[in-house]
């Protein structure tokens, strides 16, 4: 079955109510744009040289297509990413929050119950993001094929640089952790997400299809250990909170948001990634469930470090105030 | 603590990673035994020695470079301190081994990231070796050469690699590594030589082989020349012959080796001496045998020995000894007017003094021929030498006399020098021995011989001989002093054997003695006297022989000069000859 058909089927399937509120890739329209480009090329060269017969645009970039195609695609991608992250956040908030906050949230949702619905929602979100990611990938591939250029690939790297690549989003990892958590409780094993925390290189694996597997390393690049109390910088790299704080030379209790905006990501050297860092609560929960010992040990260490740092900080502050 | 613990944890992980999956061409030298997985000590974790192979197809190919990695306290957030321990010629690596690499500095200037690790650092160093960056050079010269004169750069880099990073990994590279920037390559080489010389007598002898060979040749020539005079025993006389005939050759030879050879010879001689001294007791007995055997050799195989440097030396020594034994002092000393004589005489002198009575025992070993020869030598040589000596020596003697406590006696004898040759000959040997002993033995040996000489000379042989000896003694002394100084220097360098160190105090004593302190001499003498007791004779002879053999290199040179002078131009001042080899001090004295 062609992907276009699959995608249409997905869009108009039983989850239509869910997708109505979300933007998605206008796969068909984008395809039409490319088709027009091809047909126009054919008209331009009716004699039909070999290359034109194949329907390929010879020019590296065709202004008409580029204008429509890429602007449209990037708009959609950013919309999808935003929608996805907000949805995931909303979902996780429901799941993670506790006590009164949770009660209030439930109250707002009219006590629609929870676990199954939430798990289902999570599954739907995963499907949503994977379908859209594949759609973007496919349409870009088609673009490259039609124009015999590498603009499509370049566009993908550009998207990744702007953190619009859906499959690189830290929220996907969060969602995966949530998925595993909820499934672990319900006992129903997920085939899409799996994670291996016991080996030297802890990874979370997302299986989209037989040929497409994504691996997310859960190793902190600074302490080379499994991330603990992990934070994802907006570039998508995961670190322990303590490690990230010391890399940004801020106190642990100050939090990552206090970091100098000029501070760079320890891995990709990108500037200003600390401000929008995301705390990976679900992942931490997963760790807590999976490796209790390690988690407790780490928690102890981090707390000791935090206390020590704050002690030093307040010592210096008081000294400063007293005029020493 | 948490920080340190975390760092420790990370280091362990990194080392594990390094060991299991090292970057191409990199190996860890000191971690292998340390079991990085188990909690190895912090020390080994904060100091890592790695070895990186020069990338193939570059000027550093086949070289193995040692890299020292120091992990700072705030490690993942501070770059490791990486330096080359092996000298390398590279635009981005300076003489101290510091590396100009952006990832080794903190962000404002550099590009270090906490996510980088030692493995990546080593990998980028490997890349730096294959792709130097002359635009950001640490070594101006090297980067300029790399840019504009690639050929010379390649040559230099290749030679440096060969010198420090190949095969010699164990020796030179490590040495250089300890202080790569400070030590210049030549220094290292010198050290190597010294070590070799000090370690293996054989090696030094081999190096000296040229000199010894020349000497041997000289010996042969001498034999020929002496044949007329001596007739029967050419073998014993070889040394003398050589010196006289070879004269010019030997002189020429001397200046060449003077630099390195001298040092080597001195060092070598020193080392053997030390060994000898240390082993004196043990060696003594064995040596006695040796001497006896040697004597026999001398009689039988002198001519054949001439070819081999060591043999020649031994032979010469043997000859000298034999002569001494036979003639009791006259023959050998006369002929050997040079330093060789002095040494021989020195060696002989103790024998003579102590031997006095025991000469007979040695005598039997020596053939009748020897005695005959000696007699002949004594007569002829004595006369000649006496004359020369008398004229030449007078000045020197005075100086010597000043230096030596017994100088007064000697002076008196000096006057007597003109008197019968026999006297002089006899006296010469002891005096020579005394002075000579000081020089070669430097250590404990020096003291004893002096005493012996002094006493013996004074008592038995009268002052006459001493005069001659003074001449020789002066030369020897000067030689000794210079030699001692060199030795001491060598000792300070640490190249010398431990035995030498033991000797050092004696050397100092000897120096003091030279300076004219008779008291010290006497003290030193006492010890040796005790030592020698009955065996003193044998021991002395043995020691002397050994010393002579060891010193032979230097001695030989001296001998040749002396002999030449005597024979060819007796009127020439030996002093001049002596001056050449000797330091400026000698000149001043002369």
From TrEMBL, chain A:
Its EC number is 2.3.2.27. It catalyses: S-ubiquitinyl-[E2 ubiquitin-conjugating enzyme]-L-cysteine + [acceptor protein]-L-lysine = [E2 ubiquitin-conjugating enzyme]-L-cysteine + N(6)-ubiquitinyl-[acceptor protein]-L-lysine. It comes from the Eukaryota. Gene3D superfamilies: Zinc/RING finger domain, C3HC4 (zinc finger). Pathway: Protein modification; protein ubiquitination. SUPFAM superfamilies: RING/U-box. InterPro entries: BAH1, SPX_dom, Znf_C3HC4_RING-type, Znf_RING, Znf_RING/FYVE/PHD, Znf_RING_CS. Residues 220-269 form the RING-type domain. Keywords: Metal-binding, Transferase, Ubl conjugation pathway, Zinc, Zinc-finger. It is an enzyme of class 2 (transferase). Residues 1-157 form the SPX domain. GO terms for biological process: protein ubiquitination. This is RING-type E3 ubiquitin transferase.
UniProtKB/TrEMBL annotation, chain B:
It comes from the Eukaryota. InterPro entries: UBC, UBQ-conjugating_AS, UBQ-conjugating_enzyme/RWD. Its EC number is 2.3.2.23. The active site is at residue 100. Residues 167-189, 561-590 are annotated as: Disordered. Residues 6-166 form the UBC core domain. SUPFAM superfamilies: UBC-like. Keywords: ATP-binding, Nucleotide-binding, Transferase, Ubl conjugation pathway. It is an enzyme of class 2 (transferase). The keyword Transmembrane helix does not apply. GO terms for molecular function: ATP binding; ubiquitin conjugating enzyme activity. PANTHER family: UBIQUITIN-CONJUGATING ENZYME E2. This is E2 ubiquitin-conjugating enzyme. It comes from Aquilegia coerulea (Rocky mountain columbine). The lineage of its organism: Eukaryota, Viridiplantae, Streptophyta, Embryophyta, Tracheophyta.
């Amino acid at each position: 079955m062609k992907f276009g058909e699959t995608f249409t089927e997905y869009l108009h399937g039983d989850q239509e109510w869910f997708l109505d509120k979300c933007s998605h890739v206008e796969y068909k329209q984008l395809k039409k744009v490319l088709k027009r480009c091809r047909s126009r090329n054919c008209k331009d060269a009716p004699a039909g040289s070999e290359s034109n017969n194949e329907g390929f645009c010879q020019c590296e970039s065709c202004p008409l297509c580029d204008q429509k195609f890429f602007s449209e695609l990037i708009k959609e991608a950013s919309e999808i990413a935003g929608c996805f992250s907000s949805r995931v956040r909303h979902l996780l908030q429901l799941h993670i929050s506790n006590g009164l906050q949770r009660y209030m949230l439930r109250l707002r949702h009219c006590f629609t119950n929870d676990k199954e619905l939430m798990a289902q929602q999570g599954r739907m979100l995963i499907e949503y993001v994977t379908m859209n990611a594949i759609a973007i990938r496919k349409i870009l591939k088609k673009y490259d094929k039609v124009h015999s250029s590498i603009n499509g690939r370049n566009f993908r790297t550009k998207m990744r640089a702007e953190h619009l690549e859906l499959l690189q989003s830290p929220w996907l990892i969060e969602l995966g952790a949530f998925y595993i958590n909820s499934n672990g409780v319900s006992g129903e094993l997920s085939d899409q997400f799996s994670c291996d925390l016991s080996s030297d290189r802890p990874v979370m694996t997302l299986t989209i299809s037989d040929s497409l597997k994504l691996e997310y390393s859960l190793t902190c690049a600074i302490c080379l250990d499994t991330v603990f109390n992990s934070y994802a910088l907006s570039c998508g790299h995961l670190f322990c909170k303590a490690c990230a704080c010391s890399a940004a030379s801020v106190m642990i209790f100050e939090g990552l948001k206090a970091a100098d905006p000029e501070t760079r990501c320890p891995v990709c050297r990108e500037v200003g990634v600390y401000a929008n860092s995301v705390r990976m609560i679900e992942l931490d929960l997963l760790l807590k469930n999976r490796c209790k010992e390690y988690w407790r040990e780490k928690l102890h260490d981090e707390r000791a470090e935090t206390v020590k740092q704050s002690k030093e900080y307040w010592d210096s502050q008081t000294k400063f105030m007293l005029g020493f | 603590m948490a920080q340190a613990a975390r760092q420790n944890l990370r280091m362990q992980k990194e080392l594990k990673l390094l060991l299991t999956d090292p970057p191409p061409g990199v190996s860890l030298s000191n971690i292998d035994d340390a079991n990085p997985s188990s909690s190895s000590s912090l020390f080994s974790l904060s100091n890592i020695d790695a070895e990186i192979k020069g990338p193939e197809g570059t000027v550093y190919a086949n070289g193995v470079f040692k890299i020292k990695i120091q992990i700072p306290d705030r490690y993942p957030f501070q770059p490791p301190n990486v330096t080359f321990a092996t000298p390398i010629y590279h635009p981005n690596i300076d003489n101290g081994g510091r590396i100009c690499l952006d990832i080794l500095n903190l962000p404002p200037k550099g590009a270090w990231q906490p996510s980088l690790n030692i493995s990546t650092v080593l990998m980028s160093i490997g890349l730096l070796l294959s792709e130097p960056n002359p635009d950001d050079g640490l070594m101006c010269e090297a980067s300029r050469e790399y840019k504009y004169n690639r050929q010379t750069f390649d040559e230099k880099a290749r030679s440096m690699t060969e010198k420090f990073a190949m095969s010699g990994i164990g020796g030179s590279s490590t040495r250089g590594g300890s202080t790569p920037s400070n030590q210049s390559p030549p220094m290292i080489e010198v050290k190597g030589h010294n070590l070799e010389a000090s370690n293996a007598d054989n090696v030094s002898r081999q190096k000296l082989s040229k000199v010894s060979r020349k000497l041997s040749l000289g010996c042969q020539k001498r034999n020929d020349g002496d044949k007329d005079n001596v007739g029967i025993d050419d073998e014993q006389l070889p040394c003398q012959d050589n010196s006289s005939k070879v004269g010019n050759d030997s002189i020429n030879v001397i200046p060449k080796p003077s630099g390195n050879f001298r040092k080597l010879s001195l060092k070598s001689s020193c080392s053997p001496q030390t060994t000898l001294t240390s082993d004196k007791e043990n060696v003594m007995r064995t040596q006695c045998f040796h001497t006896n055997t040697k004597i026999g050799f001398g009689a039988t195989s002198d001519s054949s020995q001439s070819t081999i440097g060591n043999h020649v030396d031994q032979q010469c020594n043997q000859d000298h000894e034999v002569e001494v034994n036979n003639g009791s002092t006259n023959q050998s000393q006369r002929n050997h007017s040079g330093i060789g004589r002095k040494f021989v005489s020195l060696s002989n002198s103790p024998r003579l003094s102590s031997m006095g009575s025991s000469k007979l025992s040695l005598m039997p070993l020596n053939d009748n021929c020897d005695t005959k020869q000696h007699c002949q030598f004594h007569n002829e040589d004595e006369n000649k030498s006496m004359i020369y000596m008398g004229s030449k020596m007078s000045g020197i003697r005075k100086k010597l006399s000043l230096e030596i406590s017994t100088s007064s006696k000697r002076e008196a004898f000096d006057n007597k020098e003109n008197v019968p040759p026999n006297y002089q000959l006899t006296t010469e040997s002891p005096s020579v021995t005394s002075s000579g002993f000081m020089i070669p033995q430097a250590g404990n040996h020096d003291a004893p011989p002096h005493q012996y000489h002094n006493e013996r000379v004074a008592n038995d042989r009268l002052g006459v001989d001493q005069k001659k000896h003074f001449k020789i003694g002066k030369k020897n002394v000067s030689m000794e002093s210079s030699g001692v100084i060199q030795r001491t220097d060598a000792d300070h360098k640490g190249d010398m054997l431990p035995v030498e160190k033991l000797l050092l105090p004696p050397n100092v004593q000897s120096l003091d003695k030279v300076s004219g302190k008779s008291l010290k001499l006497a003290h030193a003498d006492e010890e040796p006297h005790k030592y020698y007791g009955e065996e003193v004779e044998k021991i002395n002879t043995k020691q002397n022989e050994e010393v002579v053999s060891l010193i032979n290199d230097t001695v030989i040179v001296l001998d040749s000069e002396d002999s030449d002078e005597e024979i060819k131009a007796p009127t020439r001042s030996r002093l001049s000859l002596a001056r050449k080899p000797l330091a400026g001090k000698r000149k001043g004295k002369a």
